[in-house]
Fold each of these.
Amino acid sequence: MMSAVFEGVPLSAMQSPQQLHTNTISPQELALEIKAFLSGVDQTQGRKLSARDHAKSALRLLRRVPACRGAVLEHLRGVYDEHVAAYLQELEGERERERE
């Protein structure tokens, strides 16, 4: 059986969706999470979400609201693309400094 650890919680490949949602949240909290994800702003504190917090919000929605899957995966693809581009740019800068 396959298993993984996500946010410190061991997950089994055989777990049902109900088993993954043991920490349920209220509809109001879920609405705030969706608004925060869509706007990129923490709805309770009124501050812009960091890239890490935005990605965590996306992952929480991916686990709790299957209908959000497309939007969440598109956002995470963008996060991945940004980080890869930054890494490649950093590598190129290191190569140029080595040539000098």
Note: Confidence is low (pLDDT under 50) at residues 13-21.
Amino acid sequence: MQSSLSARAMVSTRAQQRMAGTAIRMENGKLIVPKDPIIPFIEGDGTGPDIWRSAQRVIDGAVEEAYGGRRKIHWVEVLAGEKAFRQTGNWLPDETVEMYKKYLIGIKGPLTTPIGGGIRSLNVALRQLLDLYVCLRPVRYFKGVPSPVKQPEKVDMVIFRENTEDIYAGIEFKSGTDDANNLWGWLEEQGEAKNVKYPKTAAYGVKPVSKEGTDRLVSDAIRYALAHGRRSVTLVHKGNMMWHTEGAFRDWGYEVAKTKFRDDCVTEREAAILAIFDSGITDHVQNAKLLEPGFDFMSKQRQASIVAEVAETIETLWRFFGNGAWANKLLIKDRQTDITLQQVLTRANDFDVIATTNLNGDYLSDALAAQVGGIGIAPGGNINYSSGHAIFEATHGTAPKYANKDVVNPGSVVLSGEMMLRHLRWHTAADLVIEAMDKTIANKTVTYDFARQMAGATKISCSAFGSELVGNMALDGGM
């Protein structure tokens, strides 16, 4: 009874809140943002309320400083996680999903993963229910932040992680069950079971990777790179071992670049062929030998294939991309996952925008966050560029032992708010958040996680850090 009353009270409260402000909408594929947008938020579990209070003040402060009252966000709280379960008996109420569907753009703090329930992860559930197929993770360094690497300032990357497929689709079969045994039987019938060493105890997971899913992710990564003046898009995969999933992701990614963005993109291999031709080597066989150092040891068939590739590239692209014009195009390349995890440490400048599958993106985004100070200040957004839906979020956990102590770093949600403002095309306000973060950290007035690693730092609370950020915002003319 109490749960039912609480649910009705929540609906009533939300209805009153919805009266203020205007809904964001999509028209002809474009996001139409009013000056008074309604934005739903989930404060989150554990440290979420502390973080959200601080972050909301920073976001509102940036909007006020940038636009002087001419623009204002109308926040509407929606429930998920522990707070929702206490009030409604549901970890993710239908109304919350409907609010995000209706108002398109939202933001959230960290959420608890229910134990023993029907939802493996509330975060994953929201992504799947709203088809938020892009997990967008920009990674950059703020001067002064403690880092385990020597040159963290070289890290300036944006990860486009596919958000709905791969093993995160949740198709698994528990060891010893009829489903697992039936799958084993089918694999045996297909002659694909020889590499399963212990079939009686093996558990299985299915890894779906589709052409459509790859197309929309890579297309958005390329559009982002072109719109933001980025140098390259790297397709990260493990295609040398998983030919038909990760390898297909790579091949489909190149196909997207060559067919949908031909005027703006050149692949790394095409660029190499054109550069050799521009250097004065016009013989296709010599070009092929420079392109492939092991050319002389290849089969005649393979040699002929490479020479034909060189000829086709020069014939179709040189008149448009020759004489060095290829160097001004967006470079599309690929790297295997393992070498990428090494090279983002040793050759960070080689990477700019990264497009990758779900599990690879999970590894990469957190590994890169560690290079620039940790996930405590790592922002994230889950986006469907076609429908207009997006939820920006903390990328860290709930840290319940610090709940209600006003000590944790609110940077992840603050910077996720900055991402949201930029997504709304409120660039002036977004710039203010970045500038304030730069100045506040440079002043060494930071929360405990940074203060304990920074000589001469002043340790301040979560709320005080938010106040410092607002105080360090200054608009130097312009709108």
Note: The mean pLDDT is 92.
